[in-house]
């Protein structure tokens, strides 16, 4: 229960730290959408290697939440920068994906490569750390694919929802040509 409480606090802190620089309440949700997929990757890694989930696996999953956010953050930040230069949201996320692809892939692969010796370690002293390394390593690998595929989709969906709300909001306050101002 302490780990679950700590995980919720960590998620809130991640959300807050993302909302401040984005100056948005919704974009951090797109960035954080990769976290559940990282958890799926961590569990899948345990299944592939025949390990049981342990308390150290859960510690690894909590740490994984912060690591997984990095790739999404890099992608969304690049898209926002391109968008501020005048591109459409579709153009911005496509350019950002191309520009940041190598950085995202290399960051994830080097993280997994760095954890691989610990995952493969056979000594008795390292056995208790292996579940944490599996959580981090496999979670990062799985979340990277999701980051490159679903996060751009989430970005475009969010922009569509923002556009829809702004159109609805604009209609409710602006009278039609046929209506008198009192009818609104």
List the helices and strands and how they pair.
Layout: H1 2-22, H2 27-32, H3 34-49, H4 55-84, H5 89-120, H6 130-173
Helix pairs in contact: 1-4, 3-4, 3-6, 4-5, 4-6, 5-6
How would you describe this structure in keywords?
single chain, 184 residues, mainly alpha, elongated, disordered C terminus
Describe the global form: elongated
Percentage of β-strand residues: under 5%
Mean pLDDT over the full residue set: 86
Number of helices: 6
The parts where pLDDT drops under 50 for at least 5 residues are 173-184
C-alpha end-to-end distance: 53 Å
Based on CA atoms alone, the radius of gyration comes out at 21 Å
Order of helices and strands: HHHHHH
> What is the number of beta strands?
0
Level of helix content? Answer: over 70%
Biggest sheet layout = none
Structural class by SSE content: mainly alpha
Oligomer: single chain
Commentary on this structure:
The chain is mainly α. 81% of the residues lie in helices and 0% in strands. α3 packs antiparallel against α4 (55-84), α3 packs antiparallel against α6 and α4 packs antiparallel against α5. The radius of gyration is 21 Å and the shape is elongated. It starts with a helix and ends in an 11-residue tail after the last helix. Mean pLDDT is 86; it is low at 173-184.
